[in-house]
Design a protein that fits this description.
The protein is an all-alpha fold. Helix content is 75%, strand content 1%. It has a two-stranded antiparallel ribbon.
């Protein structure tokens, strides 16, 4: 009988959170229970997607991952938009990118470096992913830089964000196409010997199982029918628990004295992405830094080019106006993290000290947003 991952047992917190909310338990407790319940649901969505990818093949499987890779966080932010918590949504987008580039990559480098010493990877693939991410972040930040000039013209402000969102989605589609059609570059001096290195792109973490090691064969643990059922049930469960989580945000902010910015930058991204974070760390421990970098950089690219622009149009369905406009503090943290991650990727090697520095920067940013007054950071 296959062993059940310990994380799956945490799914019991999902119905407990739902019941606690309905019987009027303290919102802080409901928030904590909901967050704990969302973690295994996000993992179930990811695992079901991976299982489906085995049946559909690497190309369609990569497309599934490129579409559903951040499904849990997308669902959470949709309910936040419905509740009118737009600052929380924008902060969670930035927080997801920061979490991938600083927390996930930092943990991967520290643990991988402590076990294997200096780790070598194909700097061409990692560098290309880092370059794509830098370009995506610049495109995502442009509306924020021009917003001060457009703030007196609300219609132009919205149209500008919508236009940028369309372009970002097109660029995402092109990056997916590129990741499927570009020929792998032979790795002649790093990591895996003469095994073809994976191509860059947001679908990389799904298709890279074909390139991460010639001697590793991946077999389906679940049947196709079971995978589909798990995906549907986990998605529905995520939607239900997300509504409970978001409903407790405002009472939590008032009772604990936290801000929406801190919840969005730190807490919400951790809840929605922790399962994916664990994957990146696990493959780093197996000395597969190319795949670890692909997960952290690819997920950040997906947030920048797909999730953020899609939410712009979803917000209109709820009568809200989610502009791609971030405050100066968010932009500084975003550019800093992206540039640091790019420098780590371009030299083709990593060590535990670099990871420790990334983790230190993440903690500093967390402290900064913890103490940042909400009135200072309002757009």
């Amino acid at each position: 009988m296959p062993r059940i991952p310990l994380l799956y047992y945490m799914v019991i917190f999902a119905p407990i959170a739902f019941i606690a909310d309905r019987v009027g338990v303290d919102p802080v407790i409901v928030f904590v229970l909901s967050a704990l319940g969302l973690i295994p649901l996000a993992k179930l969505i990811g695992d079901a997607t991976e299982e489906l990818a085995i049946y559909t093949g690497p190309k369609l499987g990569g497309l599934l991952n490129a579409t559903l890779g951040n499904a849990a966080e997308l669902i959470i932010t949709i309910f936040a938009i419905q509740a009118g918590l737009l600052e929380l949504v924008r902060a969670s987008l930035i927080g997801s990118i920061l979490g991938n580039l600083l927390l996930v990559l930092g943990l991967s480098l520290v643990l991988g470096g402590l076990r294997h010493g200096t780790q070598i990877f194909d700097k061409r693939t990692a560098g290309l992913n880092a370059t794509l991410l830098l370009l995506a972040v610049v495109a995502l930040a442009i509306p924020s830089l021009f917003d001060r000039a457009l703030v007196t013209a609300p219609n132009s402000e919205l149209l500008f964000s919508e236009g940028v969102a369309v372009i970002l989605i097109v660029l995402y589609a092109l990056s997916v196409i590129y990741s499927f059609t570009a020929k792998p570059v032979l790795d002649t001096g790093h990591g895996t010997g003469n095994v073809p290195a994976p191509v860059a792109g947001p679908a990389l973490s799904a298709v890279s199982t074909d390139h991460s090691g010639a001697d590793e064969v991946h077999h389906a643990k679940w049947t196709l029918r079971f995978s589909v059922i798990v995906l549907i049930l986990a998605t529905v469960g995520t939607a239900i628990v997300s509504e409970t989580l978001i409903g407790a945000v405002e009472p939590v902010v008032q009772q604990l004295g936290l801000t929406e910015f801190f919840l969005g930058i730190i807490i919400i991204p951790l809840v929605g992405n922790i399962a994916e974070h664990l994957v990146a760390v696990q493959v780093a421990l197996k000395n597969k830094m190319e795949l670890s970098l692909a997960v952290s950089l690819g997920s950040s690219l997906q947030i920048s080019l797909l999730v953020a622009p899609v939410l712009v149009f979803i917000s209109l369905l709820f009568g809200e106006r989610l502009l791609l406009v971030f405050n100066d503090f968010e932009l500084i943290a975003l550019f800093g993290a992206t540039i640091i991650a790019a420098f780590i990727a371009i030299d083709g090697e990593s060590n535990w000290l670099e990871g420790a520095i990334l983790l230190g920067i993440y903690v500093i940013i967390g402290l900064a947003f913890f103490f940042l007054p909400a009135t200072v950071a309002i757009h």
